[in-house]
Amino acid sequence: MKHQEHYITILLSLDDPAIHSTHTLTIEHLASLLHCTTRNVKWIIRKLQEEGHIHWQSGRGRGHHSTLTILHSLEHVLSLYFEQLLTQGKLQEAAQWLQHPQLPHTYVQRLQYRLEQQFGLHIEHHGSQTLDVLRINQSRILESLDPAFVFTAFESHLIGQMCNLLIAYQAESQTFVPQLAHYWESDNTDQCWTFYLRKGVRFHHGRTLTAQDVKYTWERLRDLDSPAFWQFTHVESVVIHNDYTISFVLQRSDPFFLNYISSLCMSILPHDHDMADKGRQLVGTGAFRLTTASEDHIILDAFDSYFEGRSLLDRVDIYFVTADYQADRRYQLFRQNKATDYTDPAQVNYKVIGCNFIMFNFCKEGIQHDFTFRQVIHMLLDRPLLTEQCSDYWLKPAYSLFPWKSKQTHAPTYSLEQAREYLQQTDYQGQPLNLNYLNRAENHAVCLWLQDRARSIGLIINLCPRDSFASQAVMQEADLFMGQEMLEENIVWGLLNFFSNRSTYVRQLLNPAQLKELDQLLVPFVAAPLPDYSKHVEKIEQFLHTSFLFIPVYHSNQKLLFDPSFQGLYPDAFGWIDLSKLWIKPTLSQKD
């Protein structure tokens, strides 16, 4: 396939690559174009001639150039090559061709549609067996699948499909429900919590779950120094009574402990399996088992022995393909006997609890330590104007983590002249500042808007889109940072985790003195009865907002587009679907 790629590259470099047209070229020019040696170019030319793509006439003597005659059209070769990439599952390579600056727009549209058709539900036939296979695209790189270190919503969702907790939080009733533990209790001091495990639950590698696996999961968090272990520092001991009974003995009373035990980091793992390579060999007890995991492709197969009943889907293929068109999480049905996609999709709207925000890197020297400078950024962020001018992305002004609080807030707006006057009161000398953000269309539009506003008052901001913030170095180079926080269905625990987990942006960007003050505000947070937590949240937000340590910018309203034949689409707090409940309702033939 490599020589086909070379041929396409050559054609795209020509002013008019019409079939049967002849072009004057040199071996040296082609070597530069194809990034190879002149010797390799001669091999490529010979290969292209043998396959009938070109006719090559070598120049004879000084001053006589070689000529290349096109025998196969760009459209023909590109279509064949693109189909080969799709057939081989090389969807990322296919998507990269769509970004080629010389590719005609009509070709891009046609090939983009073919790429889109690879996703959605596909019915595969293997002999007499029929499989329902859902293909999902995620337009960024794969992060860690290790429950001890996961920090992104999509990877957390995947872990939830492959693993189970002892108990789970149910948002509708604001209570906890059984998973691997069928019953639990605490002593009268809430200092000893005991869990009774289901019998006969199997891991994906075949062994039956026991209390030893629960203890191992907790010990693993401790031994790996997991960022999530902040929840369990007050555990004095873990006691195994028998194969199906285990107790957590705490150093103090903690009625909030069930929130910790139901957090994703406590997804129960087998003690006899090494989960190396950032969770790419994850083994759990969930509805799907991980059978393939690479940088750009994951395969989840239905686990026939799942204790809550086999999933209705047979397989889920997840591709990590960078593509601008995949703006909505779209569950579509690929109709093999139909040339067009469905034209009337159903839609589910859901509101994300949380917001996109601007923070400053206080672990790095710079103008961001100046209170007045941070106030300038706040003044530039005219939220109503931002959401009006970025209307393609369904944004709402944010003045809090919570959409309902933002809706009730009537914040003042500031003119650019006022922002310029405040900037002149600082020591800013025209140095460019780096604004880091995740490389998504919505984020880029907002950051570009802020960059233009800043430039108009003499403030220079460099936009630094990133595919990941897993690297500490990437975080450290930022002066400003735009992040997003989406709270879990268990809102109280989600808030506590956001402010306490050292892998979050708050813990990485604030300095020790600021973190100490924040931690003091968190002390009474978990001791409060559930209805009273809001007053403690108010104090925390006031601390962050009045010093402009954390500036809410906008809320996102999300939507799911899907084929009406899909059943069981109930998005969670992050907009993800429980894949084990998803199924396709067939179109039944009408009998006369």
Automatic annotation (TrEMBL):
Q: Which UniProt keywords apply?
A: DNA-binding
Q: Which residues form the Transcriptional regulator SgrR N-terminal HTH domain?
A: 20-118
Query: Which InterPro entries does UniProt cross-reference here?
Result: SBP_5, SBP_5_dom, SgrR_HTH_N
Which residue ranges does the record assign to the Solute-binding protein family domain? 176-477
Query: Record keywords: DNA-binding included?
Result: yes
Specify one Pfam family.
SBP_bac_5
The record's Gene Ontology biological-process terms are: peptide transport
Keyword Cytoplasm in the entry? The reply is no
Q: Name one GO molecular function term.
A: DNA binding
Protein's recorded name: ABC transporter substrate-binding protein
